[in-house]
Amino acid sequence: MKPPSPLSGLRVAVTGGTSGLGLALVDLLHREGASVAFVARRADRVAAVAAGHRGAHGLVGDVSVKEDTHRLALRILAALGGLDVLIHNASSLGPVPLAPLADTACEALEEALATNLVGPFRLTKALLGALTAAARESRPALVLHIVSDAAFTAYPGWGAYGASKAALAHLSRIWDEELRPHGVRSLALDPGDMDTPLHALAVPDADPSTLKKPADSAAEILALLKEHVHASRDRAGTPAA
Amino acid sequence: MQAATAPEPRRPDARILEVRRDGTLTVVLRTILPDLLRPGDLLVANDAATLPASLRGIHERTGATVEIRLAGRRSLRYDDVRAFTAVAFGSGDHRTRTELRALPPLMEAGDALDLGPLRATVLGLLGHPRLLRLRFEGDPANVWEGLARHGRPIQYAHVPEPLALWDVWTRIAAHPVAFEAPSAGFVLDWDMLGRLGARGIAFATLTLAAGLSSTGDPALDARLPFDEAYFVPEPTVRAVAEATRVIAVGTTVTRALEHARGRAGEGIATQRIGRGTRLRVVDAMITGVHEPGESHYALLRAFASDPVLQEMSARLERDQFRSHEFGDAVLIERQRS
Asked: How much is the average pLDDT of B142-167?
């Protein structure tokens, strides 16, 4: 018999869980026995993904909307009975097609910031009580921010996206410094250029065969999660599974 | 005393009246709470998040407008969200003082309630025209979705502006089970919790589904607090056993710790704490500013004698402490051993 995955029973929330990397994460986490709640804007897609992942909790909401934040937090916490890992994956590209900053409407930048920076900030805040509660019970408590190499390299045309992801990466570092004493870690991860709907919006003529598969990036993120779970179990003094 | 009328739970100028074991009274700023505690102390808070437990709708048989305030259930489980105890009001909203709210239509078992996206059946009255059992239709996910979409935080006339969920969640809110905010927890913020740790003061949590603080109806208020489901995690039990002093953040924590008496796990707090109750676990409590006659005030009698409480009330009055859930606070040490 296969030993249970170290992710079995881990309570994970994923934003943007119905396409691209988010969907691949929901898929793999579900397969490994984690308790998963995922968030996306479109009710039909949420229902379709939930139907394909028995036991996963699909929640309709928009992380960029302030009024949705606590409703989502309420439903995530109710569904999972707490929270160990929060994955901020939902992203907005900013202007489509991509545009130089000089041609980017202020509103398009604000929209990218709302989804990629302010939304994750709000949701982390709303769920921080649950994450610290998990830490006090010696469970892994982790916030993952999905970023991009556009956060670190100045690609022309990727201004709104790149600036918002750079801010998110920095937010993550500061969260990590501030939350460590409370037992919660925060990480920013660049999954690489993937064959996703977001990438297709940005680079419509990209050759998919040159791009990473979302499932491969998701598997890398899960490997990292497993390391984190083992580390927290070691700290708690219980043998790692 | 005056009511705190706006949801600003962590005002920098909020104050704490410290009522020491020997009866001396000291007023300090909320933010220096960690300095009032000693290394070896344990602060225990209620990490219940507040439900949007006020539901507006129609009593189908009469067509009357009602407000249903969910008030209790038998467990904290996610999938156990069909049957609730609830308090019903007739037309009007929170801006009318509860004492003046109209009665709901006379409910009968089997009556249907249309509550926005939610539908419920009245299972029966519980000895009072406002107090009932109801059962929601649909599966748990539907009930949660309906509550999230349609429910509003329960609120009272002293705060006229509509509250959002973020107004009624404490910083440490983790489990959405409370019907009203465990409001003593508003005293806490992350900066303060960080300073506690640095000073060697431990922090732990439990979860108690805080019920209604008031209904405005004397006969019902006399029955408060209703039974409240709770959960005490194992690490909290260990921390309590190791602590030199246990400081409960709120009446809900006092009720849970005294009911659990060192046992981890789930329970339902049914007891009343008041004059004559011997506290076995809790050494001190941080609580809001309560006035004589409130159910929370009665609980203070387990901590201090009437003369001390009278002095406390006089001081709160004189220094114009703000009462209610978004007001100032009291830190009271147990005088009786």
From this structure: 95
**pLDDT attached to residue B206:** 98
Confirm whether A155 is a catalytic residue. no
- Average pLDDT of chain B is 94
* Parent domain of A213: 11-236
What's the DSSP call for residue A187?
Answer: E
Tell me the per-residue pLDDT of A88-123, one tens digit each, with 9 for 90 and over.
999 999 999 999 999 999 999 999 999 999 999 999
Pair (B141, B269) in one structural domain? no
| Chain B nearest CA to A127, separation (Å) | 7
Query: Which CATH number goes with the domain that contains A23?
Result: 3.40.50.720
Question: Among partner residues A79, A137, A181, which is closest to B197 by beta-carbon distance?
Answer: A181
- Whether residue B258 lies inside any domain: the answer is yes
Under 8 Å between Cβ of A24 and A49: no
Q: Which amino acid does the sequence have at A199? A: H
Q: Which residues on B lie below 8 Å from A69 (Cβ)?
A: 166
Where in the sequence is the domain holding B123, given as residue range(s)?
A: 54-150
Report, as an integer, the average pLDDT of B318-337. Answer: 89
Taking only the tens place, the pLDDT of each residue in B80-132 is 999 999 999 998 899 889 888 999 999 999 999 999 999 999 999 999 999 99
Contact (CB<8Å) B166/A71:
no
Number of domains in chain B: 2
Position B156 in a domain:
no
**Residue A71 corresponds to which tokens in the numbers above?**
């409703």
- Structure token pair of residue A31: 């397969």
* pLDDT at res. B9: 65
Examine the domain organization and report whether B114 and B204 are in the same domain.
Answer: no
The first and second tokens of residue A161, run together, are 């996206």
A13, A17, A112, A161: which one is catalytic?
A: A161
Whether residues B20 and B168 fall in one domain: yes
Show Cβ contacts of residue A125 under 8 Å, excluding neighbours closer than 6 positions.
none
- Asked if B105 and B66 touch (Cβ cutoff 8 Å), the reply is yes
Query: How far is B319 from chain A, CA to nearest CA, in Å?
Result: 33
Q: What does each C-alpha distance from B332 to A31, A77, A133, B23, B185 come to in angstroms?
A: 51, 33, 26, 9, 15
Are residues B24 and B135 both part of a single domain? no
Longest Cα–Cα distance of chain B, Å, equals: 60
Q: What's the mean pLDDT in B8-20?
A: 86
Let me know whether B139 and B228 are in one domain: no
Inter-chain CB proximity B169 and A182 less than 8 Å: no
- The mean pLDDT value for B15-41 works out to 95
Partners of B269 in the β-ladder:
B228
B124 and B62 inside one domain: yes
Q: Report, as ranges of residue numbers, the positions in chain A whose pLDDT lies below 70.
A: 1, 237-241
Say whether A78 and B176 touch across the interface (CB within 8 A).
Answer: yes
Same domain, B125 and B184: no
Same domain, B212 and B288: yes
Q: Per the CB < 8 Å rule, is A67 touching B164?
A: yes
- Whether this model's ipTM surpasses 0.90 comes out as yes
Give the pLDDT score at B290: 86
How many structural domains are present in chain A?
1
